[in-house]
Every structure is written in structure tokens, then in C-alpha cells.
User: What shape does this take?
Amino acid sequence: MDILKTEELKKYYGKEETLVKALDGVNFTVHDGEFVAIVGTSGSGKSTLLHMMGGLDRPTSGKVEVAGKDIFTMKDDELTIFRRRKIGFVFQSYNLVPVLNVYENIVLPIELDGNKIDKRHIESIIETLGLTDKVNSLPGQLSGGQQQRVAIARALASKPAIILADEPTGNLDSRTSLDVLGLLKITSKKFSQTIVMITHNEEIAQMADRIIRIEDGKIAGGRIAGDRNA
Assistant: This one.
């Protein structure tokens, strides 16, 4: 089953001489339970693509389907609710609420949606990510790696159709980056969670099941992670 699908996705800025084609006809699909890395240099369009896939920005033209829904046929309020329920985000900057403790940060999106918290699911996430002894700590009392683990837990908490991770290790040192990505991969398998990760780091990308390369706003190729000859 395809969880995410883009069709002829385009995002243009400016006009005529100043026209910038951030995305120029992107087509690809992500299957249920897959962990996909999208790699590219700065300015290649990878972050723009993530913003489109997550409904954070609207395209110039084209289509994005998440869990069978064409997200850009929705009105803004409807899209906001759909995004909160179906799409989990992990950003480079963690985006934790400083006055809430770890547990409160993790369950915040569920509470904002007025839904019942699946305590067994939350406890399983916390244990898997090694946060059991940190649930009462504030973000400012945690290391960068620990804060990113909380951000991953928060993204998993609402059982979204897909998690979109934008340079999730960008603020971490290399060893912590590999630790966090290892946990992300473990959680993707344990919770059958579909993940799309944006990164410029080839080593980090190898942690995924499949790698897609983007250049100048277009898909430039794809391969199974670990197959350097593909």
C-alpha cells in the first residue's frame, strides 16, 4: 500500500528572469512501513519537498496524497487537523515546549486534538527510546540527543500515517547522530512506522531502506540503501 504519493509536484518562485524552480515535476511513492531517505545538496529542493509532503506549504501545481487523501484539496483548517492526526514531524531544532516536561511534550499533540492517550503505546515508545528516567525532566535539562529522542517520541505518539524528518541530526555530533538514527530505525520497525527523512549526509542516509536523490528540484535517481552500484 502506498502511504505517500506525489504527482508532477512543482513549486516555483518569482517570474521570468527571476523564476526559481524549487521543485520541477517530482513523482515518487512511499510504501507502508518503508524508511526512505531523500538526499541532496543545499538548494536541491529536498526541504521544499518535505514541506509540500507535510502540507506545510502549498505547491504551484501537482498533487500530494497521504494515506489516500489528496491533501491540497482540503481547506486550511481541514488540512491542519489532518496534519496533526496523520503526519508526524521531526525537525532539526527539536521544537519542544520548554515549560513542559518530557512526558507532557510527547502527549501534547494528542491532547491538542482532544483524543484519549494510549498509555501503553506511549510507555512502549518511551522505553524503546531510552527515556524512562527522563519523563519528568524539562527540555533544558536534556542533551541534544535526548531532546531529539523526545521529538521522535512525540512524532510517534499519535500513531501517524507517516513521519517526516527534516535533517533530524543536523544539530548533533556524529556519534549522537548515529545513535539517534539507529533508534529511529528501530522504532520504524517496531511500530511499523513509515518514515521519510531529508538529509545531506550520505552516511546517515544509509540507515534507511531506500535512498532517493534530488537535484535541481527533480528526482535524479533512487536505490536500495547499501547498494552503491545502483
Observations:
- Helices lie at 46-53, 76-86, 102-112, 119-128, 144-157, 174-190, 202-205.
- The longest strand covers residues 2-13.
- Confidence is low (pLDDT under 50) at residues 226-230.
- The domain at 2-224 is CATH 3.40.50.300 (Rossmann fold).
